[in-house]
Description:
Elements (H helix, E strand, L loop, with lengths): L3 E8 L5 H10 L6 E6 L6 H6 L12 E4 L8 H13 L7 E5 L6 H6 L4 H4 L2 E11 H5 L7 H10 L8 H11 L3 E5 L6 H12 L7 E4 L7 H4 L29 E8 L5 H15 L3 E6 L6 E8 L2 E9 L8 E8 L4 H16 L2
Parallel strand pairs: 1-4, 1-5, 2-3, 2-4, 5-6, 6-7
Antiparallel strand pairs: 8-12, 9-10, 9-12, 10-11
Amino acid sequence: MSKTPVTIITGFLGAGKTTLIRHILAHAGDRKLALIINEFGDVGIDGELVQGCNDAACPADNIVELANGCICCTVADDFLPTIEALLDRPERPDHIIIETSGLALPKPLVKAFQWPSVRTRATVDAVVALIDADAVLAGRFAPDEAALAAARAADPTLDHETPLEELFEEQLGCADMVILNKCDLLSDAEVAAVKAIAAKDMRAGTSIVHASRGAVDPVLLFGHAAGAEDDLDSRPSHHDGAADDHDHDDFDSFIVQGGDIADPAAFSAALLSIIAQHDILRVKGFASVTAKSARLVVQAVGPRIEHFFDRPWASGAIRQTSLVVIGEKGLDQDAITAAIQNAVTGAELG
């Protein structure tokens, strides 16, 4: 039996990985897909967002969520049993898609495909790195070099990149394809500037695609036959040769819950103010809106926020506002929680 191809989709928090997967499912054609979705927070937001997108291509039983931790740190405990279970099914999927956490390093996951029980049955067709072009242009992954140099001079132990810069380099350096997403927010000249920034950390020969809202033809994503698990040496990592060197202590994640809101626009405006005040990297989740049967999806990346109704609350589901907050270490969880809950209360009043 031929090996099942696997596409690993990586990219920082809010780059648009779930939106890309929703697009893939909607245009899957006759492919029978399986998804493994990994999230840093405790609440499975991304899995909920892809449920029902195309049940013919990817039924609910073919969607597996690995929450509360990055897959790169839990390969043996979480990932390997999951991929083995998918490969053991009487009818294997035609293609497996893995959405990593936005904080995950891709190389340890690729290396897992060398595991004896997996390597004879599955292969990494491609590693796809999704880039939030607007965030790159805004300097999210490129700190003030002068300030950083001064800090390193004052503290010699600061001999490595910032956590965001390192993740950006790791994800690009492992990729077979790079997608510059959210290009609709930029001019042609700005897109070209982002492409030049990304190219510094990309491997020679890596293809690059421009996209808006994750709209990429699956034909471009599938069929690379990269065999990435046999090509690890060409995929540089800051953690090569280090044992258990990687952790996520540089980032915090927690959940904020509240009741119904009456005015999504007012809530979004309040949330944007909170994000700016506390330099929050990512907020995502669902809100319950008064007199609405559908749940409200809330997605925020830095200074950008969007909200939309996706589908009715499931029968028996607890209607509430539940948001995952992610940021660099040191977030004031109590203050942020109180501020968001106050925003919910304010929006309750309409």
